[in-house]
Amino acid sequence: MAEKIGVYIDESSVAPLLSAEELVAYVKQKCAGACPIVKSAKRLSSPEAVAMIKADIESGVLDAVLLAGTSPRVDWEVFDFGDKILVDRVNLREFVTLAYKNPDGSAPVPGQPIPDELNSMVRDYLRMGVVKLQKMGTPNPEVPETNKTILVLGGGWTGINAALSAAGAGYEVILVEKEAALGGKAAGLYKTFPLAYPYLEATDTGLDRLVGLINGNSKIKVRLSTTLKLLAGAPGLYEATLASSGKEETLPIGSVVLAAGWTPMDGDVLAPYGYGTLKNVVTSAEFEAMVKAGAIKRPSDGKAPGTVAFIVDVTKAMEAKPAAPVEEAPAEAAKPADKKEDTPAEPVFSPIKTPKHLAYSSELTSLVALKQANYVREKLDDAVAMIIYDNMMVPGINERYYRAAQDNPGIMLTKGTVTGVAEEGIGLVVAAKDTLLGGDITLAADLVVVPTGLVPATALDPTINLLYRQGPAFPDLQLFDGFADSNYICFPYETRRTGIYAAGCVRQPMTMAQARDDAAGAALKAIQCIESASRGVAVHPRSGDLSYPVFNFVRCTQCKRCTEECPFGALDDDEKGTPKPNPTRCRRCGTCMGACPERVISFDNYNVDMIGSMIRECEIPPKIEEGGPRVLILACENDAYPALDMAALRGRKWSPYVRIIPVRCLGSVNAIWVADAMSKGVDGVMMLGCKYGDDYQCHFVKGSEICNRRKENIAESLKRLGVEPERVEQYQVAIDEYDKIPDMIDQFMDMVLKIGPNPFKGY
């Protein structure tokens, strides 16, 4: 815990409304015992000011530094004074001088007497900053001896590129492929979309060259006809059990790239277009195989077609045909309490029974139609290719490929919704409406090609069998239609199992060019994970964080809330339910700390007592009439806190009665903080965090959602105490919604003023 704190106030951040000299005097008077050095500087980030702080640190007088000025989101690299000195920031620029407005809504006048509300605000933040450091300790992480071999699951296009990327960075790789040869689905392609300039023609995949590079690389060991039977342990410390021909081997692994690939969608959903009943209706995957075999022929009679129709969009029919019910699997399956930790969990996996991945016309289906229409022109001199699409999606450089098809006289493109395919004589008729030609039309075709949806391997097979308390598979695969769980918006590649990174079509439908980039990204993430684990720091999203939850097992009641609520499976438990930490799995979100009813979980630099003490440092007027209400904002550091910063920088202001405390994630919010605030007389608590639900943006995946569930329990407790539950509310805020936050605060403040003061105020 910090005992000798140096406080440094940035004059440029508090001017022109506040006097840095007066703030220095206040801190010296109020925190004399804890703060032996209190100074101000014109700009703390200047080389002169940084040199001054370093000199004070080197004198041995300080064990912590408090920088009161700009947001901690800026200049953070300037204030790096090493791991031995604690450093924290108080945001006086964005949260005080830029955001302050008088209670009547008017702007303060520089040079005039400082308003009481402004004085109260800045002094509260300074005291909160000092007590926060007093409750903070220097993290002392475990530094394990880690394995640095990367396991790549899947020897297709993505897996091959991931293996080459990792090996190119100097890491040993084990490439596992369940089939007898490398290549995967790419081996069955005749050509691929343009991969290089001028992006006008389909090209050879180049797969043979890549396989040659794999076989010639001494850092890559290939295991064919092999599957992963079990993955036990944690990042940097994994043990992978591989099975092949009835034999097993266990290998030390640092991290995993999941590139298991895809299989074609069940053709039943394409029945409205005649697939399965009309011989000359084929899928794009079947058409690709036909061309790869050497010729384009009608299945009905083996003759070359004169006209081939490509249907890009089939969503209307799929919407009309409901999918078969899916048998839900537990998202977080817990092993029985009496099961020993070292016993592998029974596989709990429910495959997606009717996987469908053409929910909208995608870039992929559009490009496949363009590519295969060009096959028709290449293989059949006099044939015509027709493409009917609802939406043609060719973003980026692929626009050149689309325009090349437009210029081809043998390719016809028309916008329209296909309503059906029927047989007429020895040919087919495609009916469409809402076309560019106007009205309803029918097109005669000798062969009709319907798109193939990509079903990820994880939808049909667990692929990875984890030895985790939360179960052997990834959570919520049903939610993502079987695609490997990852945070698409914030952190692509990163599954909810730290150290396992999804890439390619197992993560989302993508082109080979995209999959190649995806493979490189996942390989780099796998490397980052290994290196971070070897230094005892978090890999993501709090990259470099040295802290880790500390457990007071003496007071633990084995309630299992921490193990059940951890979004990342960082905690196992023993037969009694006592948590068993896995440090390298942890992402330092603090969700376990928020879950613990006994408050026995903490971080050296972030704990329940710290935030509680900061709340207690807020000065609460005994009556609203004498000093105004008080509202506490617990702001998630990932979206809400940056949004508040941006709002202030753009001239938006909010009530002077608000006090903002950053938290790592709303999942870390412990109910005792709300209880402390209410008992102290705070009139309302706003919890600002990331969006949750199907389109979640929470950096820790489940944090905001878990907080929302806990809020319901808090509301019940408030009702029993005679306190209005609406005094505590959670708001979802995306980082780009900074313009909405001041209005949210004002509306909440209006509600607080309407219902009156907290009944506990003044006690």
Question: Which helices and strands occur, and which strands form pairs?
Answer:
Layout: E1 5-10, H1 11-14, H2 20-30, E2 37-41, H3 47-58, E3 64-69, E4 86-91, H4 92-97, H5 116-134, E5 150-153, H6 157-168, E6 173-176, H7 207-215, E7 220-223, E8 227-232, E9 238-244, E10 247-253, E11 255-258, E12 262-264, E13 281-283, H8 284-293, E14 307-311, H9 315-320, H10 363-379, E15 384-389, H11 399-406, E16 411-415, E17 417-424, E18 427-433, E19 441-445, E20 447-450, E21 454-456, H12 457-460, E22 500-502, H13 512-534, E23 550-551, H14 561-565, E24 571-573, E25 579-581, H15 591-595, E26 601-602, H16 608-616, H17 624-627, E27 631-636, H18 640-649, E28 658-663, H19 671-680, E29 684-689, H20 703-720, E30 728-732, H21 741-755
Helix pairs in contact: 5-16, 6-7, 6-13, 8-10, 16-19
Describe the structure in your own words.
The protein is an alpha/beta fold. The strands form 9 sheets. It has a 5-stranded parallel beta sheet with strand order 7-6-5-11-22, covered by helices on one side. Strands 13-20-14-15-16 form a 5-stranded parallel beta sheet. Strands 2-1-3-4 form a 4-stranded parallel beta sheet, sandwiched between helices. Helix 11 (399-406) links the parallel strand 15 and strand 16. Helix 5 (116-134) packs antiparallel against helix 16 and helix 8 packs parallel to helix 10. The two termini are 30 Å apart.
